[in-house]
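pasting for ref
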Amino acid sequence: MNKLKIVLGVMCIAITACASTAIAPSYKWTQFVEVAGQPEPVPAEWVATPEGKFAHSIKIPNPVPKDSGYKPWMSSEAYFKHLCETEAGEFIFKTVENVDGFYFMRPPKRPTDYDLMDRYRLEAPEIESLFQSVRPTFEDQAHLFISPPRRTYRFVELPDPSKAFGESFLRAYGYRANVSPMKADAVSATKSRYGLIWRGIKRPHDRESYVAGGEWIVLDLKTSEVLAVRRNYGRTGFSRNTPEGIWWLNAVGCPAPNQPRTLVGALHQIYEYSAKVIKPVSGE
């Protein structure tokens, strides 16, 4: 019996999260909701929170078309390639100089192994999977934007996770190398003029084709003007160690110049994107 346990243990090490795989419940979207920010109704789960509802209410200058171009004969790879070529990219409509800081409105939660192996559980797997390597603390989330040596923001504001959305906030600042934690103030109102938020994209037959998309949006919180949109798609379905071959953590993203191949590099792209739009002052 002990030998059997040892063998099973070795198998579990070889197969990613095998213990959880065996009991992972099936998940399926059943209700869809019309939203102002997308041509396709989105799963009700995506707008079940105030921050999700707000994200999907944003109307952007270049929304994806109602017709995604999907054809029944398309393979997963062909559909993914088509979406990348026709819809993905960075679209910057306006830039702002000398920005001290901004409001990181919807920090993604750290996904579980269940989430990463499930076709439908995550709203924007291409975005949320990156945060598997980020602890769900305001320090780690803020470090993405205010840690030297790069030109950085002086502060980042985030929702206080212990309070209702919009009720209280944390302002992280005062980063110093090798000194932890950063300073953080609990405040009742933000002082940021600009915000960064993400949302998933619903396209016809996307998850059936092992494809999922997401958008990062930079907006002016005072005027509600959208300054930029970064849209990307990811494709999975080829993992050998998970049910249905799904493992969003190693999904293929749309090709782009100098596309990083590591999680650290991909997370850095979020900073690089925001810094192109709301350009930071020196963090010193």
